[in-house]
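Notes to self after the call with IL:
- keep both proteins in one doc
- input above output, always
- annotate only the second one for now

Protein 1:
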Amino acid sequence: MNKIIYSFALVAVLTSCASSYRVEGSSSVSALDGNKLYLRAVKDGEAKNIDSCDVVHGEFHFAGLLDTVRMANLYMDDESIMPVVLEEGDIVIKIDNASQTVGGTPLNDSLYHFIDRHNQLTSRMNELSHRQSQMLLDGIDEETIDRELSIEAAQIAQQEDSLVTNFIVDNFENVLGPGVFMMITSQYRFPVLTPQIEYIMSKATKTFKNDSYVREYYQAAQENEQRMNGLSETASTPAPVDSVAPQTPAAPLVNMPKP
């Protein structure tokens, strides 16, 4: 009897020490209603579903225990919708046709402040093509248009580069640094060493370098660089990016299902 009581007490202690997450979600997107959503994250080197729920009348809920804070993605079937940080506390997800946000906990608030700023820069870059068309209609010569818009495009690109780089550097010691690093590197067909990645790795802390995705990506990128420079005795074909690690989340930062 004492052993049974001790076992229950031990389970209670271990459970009380574990942190937990709670997700309260709402959606006005008709494509989501009646569908099953999944929280998917990299665990033990593989992308796995760690929770699921149904969207009922625009509402959905997740809850569970956390062994560690982790980056995850919200999925509908195999379509990634948006990244979510699973951390202790009450996480609030709001989805509509205009925006998708996650908040209520420190890392999610920080991530979506970054995503909002990144989306603003993306919108400004996309607007340049509309301005180009309007300037042509206004009779402005193409050389003048190209000169003016190229300068502005370069300025926006520099702001985007600084935003992403500084965010990763500022978050070396938590899951946001590796998570956003995964987002920006998923755009490449194979691991490469860009000036931005080289700068990030030159500043990287031990914690960041030891992240499994970062470590394997950087190693593969260095090997690919050697292949392309003819310094490696191995095959000249670069290793594909999907040989590094399961990519969750991946670009784009948010990806709404079509209504």
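Protein 2 (the one to annotate):
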Amino acid sequence: MEGTVQIANSAISPTSPYHNPDVPVYAYDPAQAAQMLDEAGWAPGADGIREKDGERLSFTITNRNSRPERTAIAQAIQAMLKEVGVEVKFEDLENAAWLEKWLSTDWEAIVGGWIIPADPSLTALYACEGSNNFTGFCNPELDAAMMASDEVFDFADRKPLMDEVQLLMAEEGRELPLYYNVLPYVMREDMQGFKGSGTNLGSFWNVYEWSLGE
């Protein structure tokens, strides 16, 4: 992303008061990764891709061809994993076919993204029966923490629950956050009163305060 974004370790952005800065951080350490794969019995084959019991260490990322930046991310993942003997293949689909594939849950890996509300809840994305959970991920302990966090309103009560949610997600590692997205705004020099929104409210939440020039 050419240095324009911040690497993410949690599903909740540091701009949110609910962000937990103390979640485990996975270091970028190819040597340790190779060692762990060796210890797990995955040995490099003739072409450098690791094998175990006749099976290649390989998976497919399904790419959405209308999102070239995500395909570029997938290509970076492919190159990094090849260094430690993991094969990453691509399935490139046009928008409608990608969406159908994603909703079917019949895929191995996808690079995706989302915008969460200012008052964050991750339940729909990660609960066992979450309406937008298309990964098949299910952790009853995480469900309990997310449900509890959705049922309290006071920040002092909710913050520890959201901290626990982020900790459990980081420890599980089923879905890895990559970076916090940056959405640039372009406006006239004499635009006054504009305030960007880092939530799903969009750009027009305070339009009643806008003005142009004097």
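Annotation: The longest strand covers residues 58-64. The mean pLDDT is 91.
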